[in-house]
Amino acid sequence: MAGLPLDHIADKIKDAVGDVVVEVNEGDRVPFVRVEANAVARVARFLRDDGELAFDFLMYITAVDFPDEDKLTLVYYYFSYQNQQSLMVKADVPRQGGTARSIAHIYAAADWLEREVYDLFGVTFDGHPNLERILTPEGFEGHPLLKDFASEDYVPFPDKMPGK
Amino acid sequence: MATDTAIHTQEFQVNMGPQHPSTHGVFRMVLTMDGERVVDCEPHVGFLHRSMEKMAENRLYIQFLPMADRIDYLSSLFCSVAHCQAVEQLMEIEVPPRAKYLRTMFMELNRIASHCIFFGVFALDLGAVTPFLYGFRERELTMDLLEMTTGQRITFNYPRFGGVAADLPDSFFAVAEKFLKVFPGRITDYERILNENEIFLARTKGVGVVDGARAINYGWSGPNLRASGVNFDLRQNMPYEAYGELGYEAVVLSNGDCYDRYLVRILEMRASHALIKKCLEGLPDGPIVKEKVSKFPKVPAGEVYARVESPRGDYGLYLVSDGTNKPYRYKLRTPSFNNLSMIREMLPGVYLADVVPIFGSLDVILPDVDR
């Protein structure tokens, strides 16, 4: 993809935010930068505010569950209208009690996106104005997109099922 | 005993939805009102959550293909094309040119169908019944064309890994020609009925204004973003399928109000009409599906992001494969979710009567929000 080289972006992050870049991966199709989990908000602010990078558009936040490695990978996907370029930033958090700094005050889009990640994966976001479940019903327990959540065993509204 | 004679106002709450006809699905807003003015809005989504992502991760790629159509059933083709694109990119399958053209043409037909519904329903929300009938009349024509080829009218299940399911029947061309002939006049009818309608203008001009920077910050995309003056359309900026060869110029307006969000979609219908015409004229011969592609593929390990311009905006699929025949992670980036998230900030300060046009002009569809 055209645009700024990934190494250049990683170097700029290092200069501005500090030594938080864990991995720079050109990848086959989706190049990404892996940063430390405690730095996602500082990286996000830098990516948006830097005049050359200008990643002003947060496309989505999600997570990928790796139970074998006991980690969740948070995925932030940014896009820059100025450079017509996208950038994926990843950060690893533990599966239980994983937490990251909220970026809802930097990207308004992150408000709902972080609620979704919290709802489906159980990652909490410090400083989020209203971190509540968004997609699952009230009173729902568990985080459905974790690999050990078995959808076969799940019964919606068990007290409202006939015969119960 | 002194009595308090001063006049006090008291805020009260109005519950709108989930089963409100103007919420386009099931969407609930708790509006705090001061008289006729909205003070605060508390949106609730998730009533239509069907755990699409979890289901995809528990199914074969081919099994999820017909289900992908259900993510956004008004523009179902876009969802299944994105699904196929992601698999094709990971498997490094080159789609034959004829299949690319067929996908492009039917996606544009699907876009017209979706925008026709927007036109009808948006006007109906404002109290005009005739446009609703007009919109559904022309949608019927596009549905007929899609049905002739795919056998379905709403959820088409048309694309396949490496191509499409069926070629055009011989009878298609005459019907398509008739459609192409009448449709521009019908759009003119649309414009004549609403564009300068006094009531319509009063209720949409200058209502719900959003500038480009704020739209981007909230992750808006598609016609809503282009109505706020941002010149970005994936068909123009990052062409896929046959858009690169056909060429496309995005429709961009600048006021960012409900009226411009309406007008962008009307103008896009004309642009889609031109694209369909070009597709039919330049339709290449050849196979419609790549040979020797397994129907039950084992997709090589890797990550991919497939991105298409759906009628609602920037639709994306982030697919992580671990080399098996099921997706490891299937993240849907649905445009309506981000488009709707601004509603909380858009509503405070407007009249209750303006809530309906503002919400309607976003053209969100709740299955696309809730997934």
Question: Could you describe the 3D structure shown?
Answer:
- The complex is a heterodimer of chains A (164) and B (371).
- Chain A is an alpha/beta fold and 164 residues long.
- Chain A has one domain: NADH:ubiquinone oxidoreductase Nqo5 subunit (Beta Polymerase, domain 2).
- In chain A, 21% of the residues lie in helices and 27% in strands.
- Chain A is built from three helices and seven strands; from the N terminus they run αββαββββαβ.
- Chain A has helices at residues 6-17, 40-49, 110-121; strands spanning 21-25, 32-35, 57-66, 71-80, 85-94, 99-101, 124-126.
- In chain A, the strands form two sheets. Chain A has a five-stranded mixed β-sheet.
- In chain A, β4 (71-80) and β5 form a beta hairpin.
- The longest helix of chain A is centred in the N-terminal third of the chain and has 12 residues, at 6-17.
- The model of chain A has no long low-confidence stretch (mean pLDDT 84).
- Chain B is α+β, with helices and mostly antiparallel strands and 371 residues long.
- Chain B folds into two domains: 1-49, no CATH class; 62-363, Cytochrome-c3 Hydrogenase, chain B (Orthogonal Bundle), CATH 1.10.645.
- In chain B, the strands form three sheets. A three-stranded antiparallel β-sheet of chain B has the order 1-2-3. Chain B has a three-stranded antiparallel β-sheet with strand order 6-7-8.
- In chain B, α2 runs antiparallel to α3, α4 runs antiparallel to α12 (258-281) and α5 packs antiparallel against α6 (172-194).
- The mean pLDDT of chain B is 88.
Q: Helix content range of the residues of chain A, please?
A: 10-25%
- What's the name of the CATH homologous superfamily of chain A? NADH:ubiquinone oxidoreductase Nqo5 subunit
Largest sheet of chain A: 5 strands, mixed
The tally of structural domains of chain B comes to 2
**How large is the count of helical segments of chain A?**
3
Number of strands of chain A: 7
Number of strands of chain B: 8
Q: Summarize the helix and strand pattern of chain B as letters.
A: EEEHHHHHEEHHHHHHHEEEHHHH
Gross geometry of chain A: elongated
Fraction of helical residues of chain B: 40-55%
In the residues of chain A, how many domains can be counted?
1
Give the class of chain A from helix and strand content and strand pairing: alpha/beta
CATH architectural type of the largest domain in chain B? Orthogonal Bundle
How would you classify the quaternary structure?
heterodimer
Cα gyration radius of chain A (Å)? 18 Å
